[in-house]
């Protein structure tokens, strides 16, 4: 497996642990709908958190969250629209980013709630 894929998988594990420690229930990981893949679908209270995980080994080229583009957002929106209807859920939906800078000596995790409001 390519090094960046391993980094991404490690980041997703860190994000899941982070969410569990903060009271979220993980409903799905790597949920696929058409061309979209949702990293994590989690629930806390009556809010469905759609979580895009971005992991980098450095912030030299920018913050991890800066790499979520409008095309990805559009794909996530369509996937979650389908998911909510398919599962007949009555929940509030929020789109989050968990940005991780994963280094051997220090790992930084930032949870950006309602992240797509800023795009």
Helix and strand arrangement:
Layout: H1 3-21, E1 25-33, E2 36-44, E3 47-56, H2 70-86, E4 92-102, E5 107-112
Parallel strand pairs: 3-4
Antiparallel strand pairs: 1-2, 2-3, 4-5
Pfam families: UPF0102
InterPro entries: Restrct_endonuc-II-like, tRNA_endonuc-like_dom_sf, UPF0102_YraN-like
Protein name: UPF0102 protein BTO14_12370
Task: Describe the overall structure.
The protein is 30% helix and 38% strand. The chain has 119 residues and is α+β, with helices and mostly antiparallel strands. It has a single domain (3-118), classed as Trna Endonuclease, Chain: A, domain 1 (3-Layer(aba) Sandwich), CATH 3.40.1350.10. Strands 1-2-3-4-5 form a 5-stranded mixed beta sheet. Strand 4 (92-102) and strand 5 form a beta hairpin. The longest helix is centred in the N-terminal third of the chain and has 19 residues, at 3-21.
């Amino acid at each position: 497996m390519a090094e960046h894929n391993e980094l991404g998988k490690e980041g997703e594990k860190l994000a899941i642990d982070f969410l569990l420690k903060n009271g979220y229930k993980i409903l799905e990981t790597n949920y696929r709908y058409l061309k979209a893949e949702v990293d994590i679908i989690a629930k806390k209270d009556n809010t469905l958190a759609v979580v895009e995980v971005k992991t980098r080994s450095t912030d030299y080229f920018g913050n991890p969250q800066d790499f979520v583009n409008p095309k990805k957002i559009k794909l996530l929106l369509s996937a979650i629209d389908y998911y909510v209807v398919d599962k007949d859920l009555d929940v509030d939906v929020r789109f989050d980013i968990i940005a991780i800078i994963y280094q051997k000596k220090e790992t930084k995790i930032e949870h950006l709630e309602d992240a797509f409001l800023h795009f």
